[in-house]
Amino acid sequence: MFSRREVLKAAGAGVATLALAPLVGRAADEKKIGYTLPKLPYAFDALEPSIDAKTMEIHHDRHHKAYVDNANNLLKDHPKLLALPVEELLATKINEVPEKIRQGVINNAGGHSNHSIFWEIMSPKGGEPKGELLKAIEGKFKSVDAFKKELSTKATTLFGSGWAWLVVNKKGELEVVQKKNQDSPYMDGQTPILGVDVWEHAYYLKYQNARPKYVEAWWKVVNWDKAADRYAKATKKD
Length: 238
Ligand code: MN3
Fold this sequence. Notes:
10 helices; mainly alpha; three-stranded antiparallel β-sheet; binds manganese (III) ion; Helix Hairpins; minor pseudopilin epsh fold; globular; 2 domains; 56% helix; single chain
């Protein structure tokens, strides 16, 4: 049997814990700065059969989450840098990141930015470019097919891990570029419009070493409405 004193002590501790728990939770939320993993705008299996559900789940919940966690951890003693939108950090402040952690920040804040764009420029709807973006693609590459061929070639010939992107360059023109690892187009003064992740983690479960097959299938899930939005924002005259 418990003594009356022991029962009171246990009850008191319970009450104290209950009373404190919500306050502790709130305080932690209010103080939270840094990046957060964005929710996928569709289900893991929404891009099947182009991209399988398991790949989407691991890619988003583990790979992207790791970039977010690592970037937050690297920048934890630099709250001013961490408070900036990630694109701004990459575009304008990367040289203010202490050299000791700079490459880690390029890899992980870059990874966070790249993947955040990647999820939103895909959609189960698919389709083809239209409007101003279509005009600009035809103006620059002659045809949508020629543009797709150039981006696919840049994606499939990239040695090792990286991305192929359609960007708006410093001259305000469309350009297709390759980037190694998680190097962000923002670091080179370019605004990414859409891009394909050609790290093996993006396709290996379903396609193994057949990167060209993955890239071909990826075109079927490009979200052209979102790409058009990004193009409009990138070319907006202030
Ligand atoms: Mn990836």
